[in-house]
Amino acid sequence: MDDNKIKISIRNLYKVFGDNPEVALQQVKEGMSKSELLEKHNHVLGLNDINVDVLAGKTTVIMGLSGSGKSTLIRHLNRLIEPTAGEVWVEGENILEFNEAQLRQLRQHRMSMVFQKFALLPHRTVLQNAGLAPSIDGQSERKYADEARRWLDRVGLQGQSDQYPHQLSGGMQQRVGIARALTSNSDIMLMDEAFSALDPLIRTDMQNLLNALQTELRKTVVFITHDLDEALKLADHLVILKDGFVVQQGEPQHILLNPADPYIEDFVSDINRARVLRVRSVMKKTPDAPGERAGEIDHDDTLESVIALSEGDTALSYRVMKDGAPVGVLDMRKLVRALVPSQQSDDPESARLGG
Amino acid sequence: MCLNEGCMATYDFLFDWMGLRNWCGDSGDDGGGMTSMSQLLAETSGEDVDVSPWETPFPSMDALHEACPSFPQSRELTSGLEEGFLSIKDSLKVVVDPLTQPLSWALNEALWIMQTVPWFIMIPLLMLIAWSVARSLKLVGLVAICFGFLGFVDYYVYTMQTLAIIFVCALTCVLFGVPIGIAMSRSDRVQRTMIPILDMLQTLPPFVYLIPLIFLFSVTEPKLYGIAIILYAIVPVVRLTDLGIRLVDPDVTEAADAFGMTKRQKLFNVQIPLALPNIMAGVNQTIMMSLAMVVIASLVSAPGLGVLVLRGIRSLELGVGLLSGLGIVLLAIILDRVTKAALARINISQSR
After folding, report:
1. Measured on CA atoms in the order A81, A85, A86, A91, is the torsion positive or negative?
2. Which residues, other chains included, contact B135 with Cβ-Cβ below 8 Å and sequence gap of 6+?
3. What confidence category does residue A3 fall into, taking pLDDT thresholds of 50, 70 and 90?
4. Which terminus of chain B has fewer Cβ atoms in its 10 Å neighbourhood, N or C?
5. Is B349 on the interface with A (CB under 8 A)?
């Protein structure tokens, strides 16, 4: 399937911060932990043996708490940070072997980036900011203006092109940031906590905007966040980082239903599961669904919508449809059971702070 | 003090201990031959006093010389420095003279232009410059009033001379200072080597610069005071350019990198524009310091208001001294306000 083509592939990536990372790396490979490394060698282990495949046209969300190495990881994808060891393959090329010109080419045309603090150029207008990529390429403002204006319109900034960034609100500034990334026409968009600095309502707006853009443009998005709700809303593929290594990765629904360790259990324990879980994750798979059913539901519906449909009656069961064909059945009882996390730690709050 | 054998200068033991007595010559048994000044003095006073520990002299060059005649005296150090400087002076001049000649030309040209253009063109021209830089009618009025006053009291020519020197020197400072500042901001090693030099330039009393320059160039050459002013005034623009570029928001420079800017694009499209408020503050300081130095430089024939101040001091003409002092203050106010207004305009256009 063309859909599952791997766009970026990260292989055995290590990053150690300190004066002598090579020596420290040896220790890490022999199994030294992050805290021990810091104590004994005064080196910080940023990333520990990361292996992630980013699929083309999908949104891959890398989630972790602060200090988990997620911002370090995303900066390896365009080599804003050089790794200590490992490989990063983009469309079949190992970008760690790129020379400076190739790397600039990659950053100009194949990868764009959206930043947590927007990072717009304060002395340039919104239009000039949106057209940063073509202007770096040497195009005049007149030449790139149409393209830049088109994307500014698309992200909802009609008629603002002559303003300066400081005249806009935070949410609007980040829209400029997204327009800037889109104007570069690159396939890959790196988003580093792009919505974390915005207030909740605007953040929801921006998430919806990104989802809408994604269904339309199908870019390869790598999104960093510390917010599980945001991660679940955006992710096709979810990677959870802790202390620089990957704790669990996979389809968000799957992670939610099968957390691999207590760390993730704590993470997922206070999520509104009815809103996040989809019918396809909890249904019983069977192509033929004989017998009397209360109705038909789509495999991608949220459990919340099914509960609303059933009006709280747990005796019902529904036929699940995908593209017009039945793919399974869903008992309301099973649905209700899925709403309760399998296990819960005694004190999730302290565990979260400790991580 | 040391009259007889057995009586020794305080630090004799040092040279004995280090085994340098032979190198010193025979100061230890100074029986017949030459007598030193102190010995003669001691002889005439006729007494042989024991030195109490309280009066132990500091082991200075002169004190050590007393114990060991081969050890140089301090005046030999200063004369040595002087001779050393004089001996390299000619070869130094071969290099420095042609390099600095353009400065002499520029100063001569600027002085000639400022004095030749008639006042009824020059004053409106200066007002126009003030307007284009500051966009403030109030400031243009201030410029007109100040120059009008200075012309009225017959200091017009002196003012123009001072202004011409400041223009040339401040411009040269910016021309060299900004690139030096950029180089400092890009490399920690350059910064480490430059900072002590800047510290020295800033703390040396301004008069001290003049001394080697007087030896190097003839006093009639304008570059003599030009170099002194530039050395003194270049420091703030260098420092603030370095600081300004280092203070540019790292998020923004990271974005510039992430979108594939070359180093040169990043410098000219991001770092310099964002550092401009700081650089302009440096330019303002540089102009103010050139003004301070141009007064001192009148000691080495720099024309302008400084000459009048000097006349006030030398021949105790109180009135001349006060009035020319006031002229310098007015000039300082104008230059400061105009550059600050320019700075404020930059700040508004890119406030975040």
Report:
1. positive
2. B341, B345
3. low
4. C
5. yes
pLDDT at residue A20, rounded to an integer: 86
ipTM value, please give it.
0.82
- Give residues 244 to 263 of B whose Cβ lies within 8 Å of A: 249, 251-252, 254-255, 257-262
Tell me the pTM.
0.80
Q: Nearest CA of chain A to the CA of B262: how many Å?
A: 8
> What Cα–Cα distance (Å) separates residue B189 from each residue in A64, A211, B7, B8, B184?
38, 48, 55, 51, 8
CB of A319 closer than 8 Å to CB of A295: yes
B282-291 pLDDT, tens digit each:
999 999 999 9
- The predicted-structure confidence for A214-248, as pLDDT tens digits, reads as follows 999 999 999 999 988 899 889 999 999 988 889 89
Tell whether A112 is within 8 A of chain B (Cβ): yes
Taking contacts as CB-CB distances below 8 angstroms, the residues of chain A near B268 are none
Nearest to A104 among B252, B262, B349 (CB): B262
CA B12 vs CA B7, B9, B17, B24, B67: distances in Å: 10, 6, 9, 10, 5
List the single best residue of A117, A125, A184, A190 to mutate versus B (max B Cβ within 10 A).
Answer: A117
- Contact state of B258 with A80 under an 8 Å Cβ cutoff: yes
